[in-house]
Design a protein that fits this description.
Blueprint lengths: L8 H13 L2 H8 L3 H15 L4 E3 L4 E3 L1 H28 L4 E7 L4 H15 L3 E7 L2 H10 L4 E6 L6 E16 L21 E3 L4 H12 L9 E4 L2 H9 L5 E4 H11 L2 E5 L6 E9 L5 H15 L5 E2 L2
Parallel strand pairs: 3-4, 3-5, 7-8
Antiparallel strand pairs: 1-2, 5-11, 6-9, 6-10, 6-11, 6-12
Family: Belongs to the LysR transcriptional regulatory family.
InterPro entries: LysR_HTH_N, LysR_subst-bd, WH-like_DNA-bd_sf, WH_DNA-bd_sf
Protein name: Probable hydrogen peroxide-inducible genes activator
Length: 311
């Protein structure tokens, strides 16, 4: 079956110009085309559509009844094409349009103020949309295209994801006021073997990281750990109430310890246990260069925090 011929944009532009001016000379002047070229384009459009659009006389041009109806539709088509090209320009421009950022709960309250300030100051045309979810949900969202970029703890060890490291931060021991480790700056990791530890519930990557630290310190896997807390704020409240101790990433200490009251901290002996925070994107993402530039700008703005900026 023969494929029907399609009108070209040049033919539609020629027809709309003549329909607006009802004069080939004026239409040619408005479009920058020659009168013969304009006339040929309109004639070709009439052939494609199989109908006369114009009545040509020696003095003037008139629209036929079909021509009047199709002129309005041709204008709409050209306007839609113009809007498509404008949208393409906007998408092509970096740091415009929507950026769907996924953030883990143990990072969001402490880093989002810096992220939001950076976007307001440097990328005012960027529509930042923030989604706070556990790591597993964020990875599913990134793979499905629901999210564009993640802010979370790494390494992930996934070949389909490219990590853009931001910084490393130490873990700090949080204890009740008066605890024997309060204020210490050289706590050995071996202290974690016997402490009553309060950790986040299952599903939080920070819980897994803390358990890894405990295992590295020689804490037996069977040593009881309280896991009833769903967030860091609850953890520090439990510590303040004398129910045990916990580990916090250093970026969370100022906010959570000040909020909790009756709390003290202790620093581990070098090298302290730590975690790495990074941006993560799909490998080969179309906006990879933009995301890399965003990571670089974010590293600079994160320097005032108590972290070690990644190279």
């Amino acid at each position: 079956m023969k494929t029907p011929r399609q009108p070209t944009l040049a033919q539609l532009r020629a027809f709309v110009a003549v329909a607006e001016h009802l004069h080939f000379r004026d239409a040619a002047a408005a479009t920058g085309a020659s009168q013969p070229a304009l006339s040929a384009a309109v004639a070709a459009l009439e052939e494609v559509l199989g109908m006369r659009l114009l009545e040509r006389t020696t003095r003037r041009v008139l629209l036929t009844q079909p021509g009047e109806r199709l002129a309005a539709r041709a204008r709409a088509v050209l306007e839609a094409v113009g809007e498509l090209l404008e949208e393409a320009d906007a998408v092509r421009a970096p740091f415009t349009g929507a950026l769907r950022l996924g953030v883990i709960p143990t990072v969001a309250p402490y880093l989002l103020p810096t992220v939001l300030a950076l976007v307001r100051r440097r990328y005012p045309d960027l529509d930042l949309q923030v989604h706070e979810e556990p790591t597993a949900a964020l990875l599913d969202g990134l793979a499905a295209g629901r999210l564009d970029l993640l802010l979370l703890a790494v390494p992930l060890g996934l070949p389909t994801i490219t990590e853009l490291p931001l910084f490393d931060e130490d873990f700090v021991l949080v204890v009740p006021d008066g605890h024997r480790l309060a204020g210490r700056e050289d706590i050995p990791r071996s202290e974690l073997r016997e402490l009553d530890l309060l950790l986040l519930s299952e599903g939080h990557c920070l819980r897994d990281q803390a358990l890894d630290v405990c295992r590295e310190a020689g804490r037996p896997d069977g040593t009881p750990v309280t896991t009833s807390a769903a967030g860091l704020s609850t953890l520090v409240q439990l510590v303040a109430g004398g129910l045990g101790t916990t580990l916090l990433p250093r970026t969370a200490v100022r906010v959570e310890v000040a909020r909790g009251g009756r709390l003290a901290t202790g620093a581990f002996r070098h090298p302290a246990p730590s975690r790495r925070i990074a941006l993560a994107m799909r490998s080969g993402a179309a906006r990879a260069e933009e995301f890399a530039a965003f990571a670089g700008a974010l590293r600079e703005d994160l320097r005032p925090l108590p972290v070690r900026i990644a190279d």
